[in-house]
Amino acid sequence: MNTTTAMEPALTTRNLTLAYDRATIIQDLNGVIPAHQITALVGPNGCGKSTLLKGLARLLKPQSGVVYLESESIFKLSTKEVARRLGMLPQSPVAPEGLTVRELVAQGRYPHQSWFQQWSEQDEVFTEQALEITGMMELGDRPLDSLSGGQRQRAWIAMALAQNTEILLLDEPTTFLDLAHQIEVLDLLYDLNRNQGRTIVMVLHDLNQACRYADYLIAMRAGKIEAQGLPSEVMTVDMVRSVFGIESHILKDPVTATPMCVPVSRRAKVEM
Question: What is the pLDDT of residues 67-112, one digit of tens each?
Fold first, then answer.
């Protein structure tokens, strides 16, 4: 199923094949990430979501195929040019020991600096703004390794925001967060998209959160795109069965009117 319609692409893949050593994870993948929208990548563990994100961010060189950043091959652009236009938050980021929150967030400004201008007033503004937006201002002087998992995740998101790129790629941005902070982070990303027109691509495991927050959904299975399009088009009983191997009911979310997936467990079948 492919429901891609005419849209302005931020990122496009053409016959993209990605592998680790000799293990091919994604093969001949064709997909579009719409500009100025929120795209959610969903699918079971090991289906290639994180690998695709690394390919889009130029962190993993394709065995074949092309990734286009707007209309340009991303591998023909300089590393600094890519970093100015595209920010990436990996699944398990690692920072040098002893780094404070503010020092981590400030690293997001490195792509905008040069040998004759190491730190500017604009760098300061974007760093402080990112701390404020993510609610990390009061923790700015705390060592990163002294924070809870949820606080560390918000610090990393702040670093990605400080980079001030037009495109943000986030691999499971709600990892380690309790439900309240998950909603807080997703609301933040939604506001960034709606108020600033940022293109946001994120890997999410929660299908209902993906439908609530994403304008565009890409469902993956075994390194291929099973379906892509509007959540209302993609989130179907057939898709959930094909991608996740389970039965489900698709209802209307009573709050947002977006699709809501209710899985049918083995226990439910027995009790029925």
Answer: 999 889 998 998 888 888 898 888 778 777 889 999 999 888 876 6
Q: Are strands 38-42 and 199-203 parallel, antiparallel or unpaired?
A: parallel
Residue 85 counted as domain residue: yes
CA distance 9 to 33: 6
User: Kindly report the CA angle at 161 between 100 and 98, in degrees rounded to 5?
Assistant: 15
Pick the closest to residue 109 from 98, 124, 94, 96 (CA basis): 124
Which residues in 129-156 are b (16+ Cβ under 10 Å) and which e? Answer: bbbebbebeebbeeebeebeebbbbbbb
Backbone angles phi, psi at 21, to 5 degrees: 55, -120
**Cα separation of 182 and 159, whole Å?**
18
* Cα 28 versus chain centre, distance: 21
Question: CA–CA separation, 116 vs 244, rounded Å?
Answer: 52
Q: Domain tally for the chain? A: 1
Q: What CA–CA distances, in Å, run from 222 to 38, 131, 219?
A: 23, 38, 10
Q: Is residue 41 part of a domain?
A: yes
DSSP 93: -
Whole-structure pTM value: 0.85
The reply to whether 265 falls in a domain is no
Please check whether residue 258 lies inside any domain of the structure. Answer: no
Q: Which residues contact 98 (CB under 8 A, 6 or more apart)?
A: 143, 145
What's 78's domain CATH number?
Answer: 3.40.50.300
Give the whole-angstrom CA distance, residue 172 versus residue 40.
Answer: 10
